[in-house]
C-alpha cells in the first residue's frame, strides 16, 4: 500500500479522494493553482503545493509541475480524480516512469478506450453491440456525407478523442452535416488536441445507461449495477439515479455479466464505467468507456454500501477485490443532482463570484459533496460544478421526496445555481413515473435555449 497520495485535481472530487485516503490511513498532498489558494481541499490535505497560474494549462494540466510536486513531497502515488489528466495515457506513463503509481488503469487501457473508434471496435469484438458507425475517422466532410447517406439520417458527429459532449453535433440532413463538420472538428481540436471526427447513427430519444465496474490485477471483475444518466443538457449530465427505473433485475444481471466479460477481455484493472444507449425497444448499444471515477459514482455507493474510490486505490496498490459478484446486493434507490454555478433563468450562463452565504441540507440519507463555504469566491476558469446533492430511500419515491426537500434547503447567496431547475425536473409527473430519455429537458428549455 502507498504511504502518501497526491491528488492531481481540485474541488469536490479532491476532497472526496482525500477522505477515502484518510479512511485507508494514507497521507495526502493537495495541489492548487494560484486562483485556488483559498480552496477547501487545501485545508483537508496533509500538505499543499502550488503548481501554477489560474489557467488549467499552467496548473492542473501541467504534467511537469504535478510530477515535481509529487517528487518534492515524496508522494508514491497520484490520484487524478476526473477531468483534467484523469484519462491521459501519457500522464499515466510519465507517472510510472518516475516511480510514482498512477491510481487508475494502465496507460494501454486508457489509450485503447480513449480512442472512441478503436474502443467501439474493441467492445464489438468483445461481444457488446454497437450502433452503426464509421470504423475510422472521417477525412473530409465529403466522406461524412457519403457515410451518413449510407446509414441514413439522423446521425451524430463525435470527436475521436472526445467525451463530455465536446465535438458532438446531431445532423438530420446533408446541409446540417456540412455546416456541423467543421465546427465539430474545431471544437474537438480545442478540447482534446485532436480534430478527428467519426459518425454514428443517432438514436432518437434513447436512455443513457451506464454500468459501474471494478477490476483488479488478477482477472477479477465485478459490476455495481447501472446508473441512469439520461437527464442531460447539451450532452452534459445533470441528474443521475441508481437503479434505473427502466431496468429490471433480469436485465441488470444480463447487462452486468456482458459488460464484465468485455472488461475482462481487455485486461482492465481499476474502477471504470461502460456507457450504453438503450433504444425504445430495449436494445442496448455500447457508446464509450470512462477509465476513471465518475462524477455520479455516489449513487452506486449509496445502493451497494461500497466505497468506489477506496476500491480504486486498493486496485492500484495491487490488492485483490475484497468481494465477489454474488456478495454485492442492491438496496433501495439513490439520486444525484449536480449543482452548477449557472443561471437557469438566463440561458444557463456561468455565475462565478463570491458566495456571501451558503447552507447545506442534512438529515438521514442526505449526502453533500462540495468544496463551497461562506466567503469562498468561485473562480471563472474551471467547470461550473460547485456541489452534488445525493439522497437515498428504501424506494425511488422516498429518494425523490428527500431530494425535493434537500434542494429546497440548499442556499448559495447571491450565486445563481441549477438547484431550482433540478427541483423542477424531479417534480415533473413524467420524471416521477420514470418516463424520460436524453432529450427530456427540451420541454423545460425556453426559446433561446432551444
Task: Report on the architecture of this protein.
- By secondary structure, the chain is α+β, with helices and mostly antiparallel strands.
- The chain has 3 domains: about 5-105, 3-Layer(aba) Sandwich (Rossmann fold); about 130-200, ATP-grasp fold, A domain (Dna Ligase, domain 1, 2-Layer Sandwich), CATH 3.30.1490.20; about 205-445, ATP-grasp fold, B domain (D-amino Acid Aminotransferase, Chain A, domain 1, 2-Layer Sandwich).
- Helices cover about 30% and strands about 25% of the residues.
- The chain has 14 helices and 22 strands.
- The protein has an 8-stranded antiparallel β-sheet with strand order 13-12-9-10-11-14-21-19, sandwiched between helices. Strands 3-2-1-4-5 form a 5-stranded parallel β-sheet.
- A hairpin with a 5-residue loop joins strand 9 (about 205-215) and strand 10 (about 220-235).
What's a concise summary of this model?
The protein has 450 residues and is an alpha+beta fold. The protein has helices at 11-23, 41-44, 63-72, 89-97, 107-114, 116-125, 141-151, 174-192, 249-265, 297-304, 308-316, 396-409, 419-426, 429-432, and strands at 4-7, 27-33, 47-52, 77-79, 101-102, 155-159, 169-171, 197-201, 207-215, 221-233, 236-242, 270-278, 284-290, 333-340, 342-343, 349-350, 353-354, 357-359, 366-370, 377-378, 385-393, 411-413.
Amino acid at each position: 500500500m502507498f504511504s502518501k497520495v497526491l491528488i492531481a485535481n481540485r474541488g469536490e472530487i479532491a476532497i472526496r479522494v482525500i477522505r477515502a485516503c484518510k479512511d485507508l490511513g494514507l497521507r495526502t498532498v493537495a495541489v492548487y493553482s494560484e486562483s485556488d489558494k483559498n480552496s477547501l481541499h487545501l485545508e483537508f490535505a496533509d500538505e499543499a503545493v502550488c503548481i501554477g497560474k489560474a489557467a488549467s494549462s499552467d496548473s492542473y494540466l501541467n504534467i511537469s509541475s504535478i510530477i515535481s510536486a509529487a517528487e518534492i513531497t515524496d508522494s508514491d502515488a497520484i490520484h487524478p480524480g476526473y477531468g483534467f489528466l484523469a484519462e491521459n495515457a501519457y500522464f499515466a506513463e510519465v507517472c510510472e516512469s518516475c516511480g510514482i503509481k498512477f491510481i487508475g488503469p494502465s496507460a494501454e487501457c486508457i489509450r485503447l478506450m480513449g480512442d472512441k473508434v478503436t474502443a467501439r471496435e474493441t467492445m464489438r469484438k468483445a461481444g457488446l453491440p454497437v450502433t452503426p458507425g464509421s470504423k475510422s475517422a472521417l477525412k473530409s466532410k465529403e466522406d461524412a456525407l457519403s457515410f451518413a447517406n449510407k446509414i441514413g439520417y439522423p446521425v451524430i458527429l463525435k470527436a475521436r478523442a472526445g467525451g463530455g459532449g465536446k465535438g458532438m453535433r446531431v445532423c438530420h440532413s446533408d446541409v446540417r452535416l456540412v455546416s456541423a463538420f467543421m465546427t465539430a472538428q474545431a471544437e474537438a481540436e480545442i478540447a482534446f488536441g485532436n480534430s478527428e471526427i467519426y459518425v454514428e447513427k443517432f438514436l432518437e430519444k434513447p436512455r443513457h445507461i451506464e454500468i459501474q465496474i471494478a477490476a483488479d490485477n488478477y482477472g477479477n471483475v465485478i459490476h455495481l449495477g447501472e446508473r441512469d444518466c439520461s437527464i442531460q443538457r447539451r450532452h452534459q449530465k445533470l441528474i443521475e439515479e441508481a437503479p434505473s427505473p427502466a431496468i429490471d433485475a433480469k436485465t441488470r444481471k444480463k447487462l452486468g455479466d456482458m459488460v464484465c466479460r468485455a472488461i475482462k477481455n481487455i485486461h482492465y484493472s481499476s474502477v471504470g464505467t461502460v456507457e450504453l444507449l438503450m433504444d425504445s425497444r430495449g436494445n442496448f448499444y455500447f457508446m464509450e468507456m470512462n477509465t476513471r471515477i465518475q462524477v455520479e459514482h455516489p449513487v452506486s455507493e449509496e445502493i451497494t454500501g461500497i466505497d468506489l474510490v477506496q476500491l480504486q486505490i486498493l486496485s492500484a496498490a495491487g490488492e485483490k477485490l475484497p468481494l465477489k459478484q454474488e456478495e454485492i446486493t442492491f438496496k433501495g434507490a439513490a439520486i444525484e443532482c449536480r449543482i452548477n454555478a449557472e443561471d437557469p433563468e438566463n440561458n444557463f450562463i456561468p455565475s462565478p463570484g463570491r458566495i456571501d452565504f451558503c447552507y447545506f441540507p442534512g438529515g438521514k440519507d442526505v449526502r453533500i459533496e462540495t468544496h463551497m463555504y461562506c466567503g469562498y469566491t468561485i473562480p471563472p476558469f474551471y467547470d461550473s460544478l460547485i456541489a452534488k446533492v445525493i439522497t437515498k430511500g428504501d424506494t425511488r419515491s422516498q429518494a425523490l421526496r428527500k431530494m425535493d426537500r434537500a434542494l429546497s434547503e440548499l442556499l448559495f447567496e447571491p450565486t445563481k445555481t441549477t438547484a431550482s431547475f433540478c427541483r423542477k425536473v424531479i417534480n415533473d409527473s413524467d420524471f416521477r413515473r420514470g418516463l424520460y430519455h436524453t432529450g427530456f429537458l427540451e420541454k423545460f428549455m425556453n426559446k433561446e435555449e432551444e
